[in-house]
Amino acid sequence: MPSPDQQQKVELPREVWVLAVIAFVVALGFGIVAPAIPLFARDYGVGTTAIGVAVSAFALFRFVSAFGGGALVERFGERLVLSTGLLIVAVTTGLAGLAGNYPLFLALRAGGGVGSAMFTIAALSLLLRVAPPDARGRAAATYQGGFIMGGIAGPAIGGFLTALSPRLPFGVYAGTLVVAAAVTVVLLKDARTRGPAPEDEPTADPDPSAPSPLRAALRSRAYLAALVVNVGLGWMLFGVRNSLVPLYVVEDLGRGAAWAGAGLLAGSAAQALGLLRAGKLADTWGRRPSMLLGASIATGALVLLVLPPTTVVFLLSMALYGLAASLLASAPASVVGDVAPEKSGKVVAVFQMSSDLGAIVGPLVAGALTDAISFQAAFAVTAGVTAVGLLATLAMPRKITPVA
C-alpha cells in the first residue's frame, strides 16, 4: 500500500461521484416508501404474515436474480444494466402504488427486487473497475456514504408522505428512480463500460482449461473472507437491526419507539462519520487490518447486547456497530475489486448475494431464537456470525493477488 501522502494524490474518477449521487437518490426513495409498505398492504385486508411476505418479496427476488444480473453486466455492460434496473424498479414501484389487489402488489414488489439486483451489481461493478487500486477504499466509502445519507433522510420524508396518503410514497419513489436513471444515462455516457467487443477489434480466444473468473475468485482466501464478512454485515445491519432492535427496545428495555429510533440514528451517524476515514484506512493501512478492526469492533458491539439490558449499553452498542460498519462497508468491497478480473459481474454478484443472504436469514434465525429463548440468545448468535468473519479475515493473506 502507498503512504498516506501518496494516496492523497490519487483522485477519484468522476464516475465515483456520479454513482454516489445515484446511491443517495435510490436510498432516499427506498427510505420514503419503506414506512408505507406495511400500511398499504394492510389496506388489502391481509394479516401480519402477508404483510411480512410483501416486505420480504423484494429482498428474496433481489437475491435469487443477482447472479443473472452479474451475467447481464458481463454481456451488455454496466451502464445499460444500471439504467435498465433503475427503470424496472421505477415502473414496478409506481404500479404497486396503484395496484388494486394484494397478489398484484406482491408480484410488482418481487419484480422490483429483480431490478434492484441489476442496478446494485452494475453500480458496484463499475465503481470497483474505474477506481484506481490505491483509491478503491475511498471510492467504496464515498459510494456507501450516498446510501447512508439517503437512508437517513428518506424515512422522515416517507413518514410525512404516508400520513397524507399511503399511495403517495410509491409515486415519489418511482420519480426519484427515474431521476437516477436519467443521471446514469447522461452523466455516465462516457464511462468505459464493459460489453461485447467491437467486431473489428480482435480478441484472444479464451483458454477452455482455465477456470471461470468466479471459480478462480472462490479459490482466493481474500475473496472468501470478504464474502463471510459481508454475510455478517447483512445479517445485522440490514436484517437484525431493522427487525429485532425495535422490539428489543420496547419489550426488554421497556422504552418507547423513539428510543429505538435514537439507537438506529446513533448507528447511522457513527457509520457516516466513520466513512470519512474508513476508506483512507483501507487504502493506506491495508484491507486486512481494516477488516480485522471492523470485525473486532462489530463483534464486541454485539456482545454488549448479550449483557443485561440497559439503555446506555444499547446506545453504545449501536454507535460502535455503526463505526464498525463503516470499515466493513468499504474494505471488503475493495478486496473484491483487488481480486476480481476485468469481467467481474458474477464475482460482484456473489459478493452482493452474500449480504442479501445475511439480510434474509438473519431476521428469521434471530426471530426464532427470540421466541424460543431470549433476545440475548439472538444477539449472541449474531455476534457469533460476525466472529466467523473475523476468523476468516485472520486467515486471508496480507497481500491480495488478482485471480487469473
Written overview of the protein:
- Helix 6 (78-96) packs antiparallel against helix 7 (102-130), helix 7 (102-130) crosses helix 16 and helix 13 (257-284) runs antiparallel to helix 14 (287-304).
- It is globular and about 55 Å long.
- It is 78% helix and 0% strand.
- It has 18 helices and no strands.
- It starts with a helix and ends in a 9-residue tail after the last helix.
- The protein is mainly α.
- The model is unreliable at 1-7 and 193-205 (pLDDT under 50).
Give the integer mean of the pLDDT values: 81
Give the overall form: globular
Low-confidence stretches: 1-7, 193-205
Give me the secondary-structure category: mainly alpha
Give the topology string: H per helix, E per strand: HHHHHHHHHHHHHHHHHH
SSE layout and pairing:
Elements: H1 4-8, H2 14-33, H3 36-42, H4 48-64, H5 66-76, H6 78-96, H7 102-130, H8 136-164, H9 168-187, H10 213-217, H11 221-243, H12 245-251, H13 257-284, H14 287-304, H15 311-328, H16 331-339, H17 345-372, H18 375-395
Helix pairs in contact: 2-8, 2-9, 3-4, 4-7, 4-17, 5-6, 5-7, 5-17, 6-7, 6-9, 7-16, 7-17, 8-13, 11-16, 11-17, 11-18, 12-13, 13-14, 13-15, 14-15, 14-16, 14-18, 17-18
What are the salient characteristics of this protein?
disordered N terminus, mainly alpha, single chain, 404 residues
Give a summary of the structure in a few sentences:
The protein is mainly alpha-helical and 404 residues long.
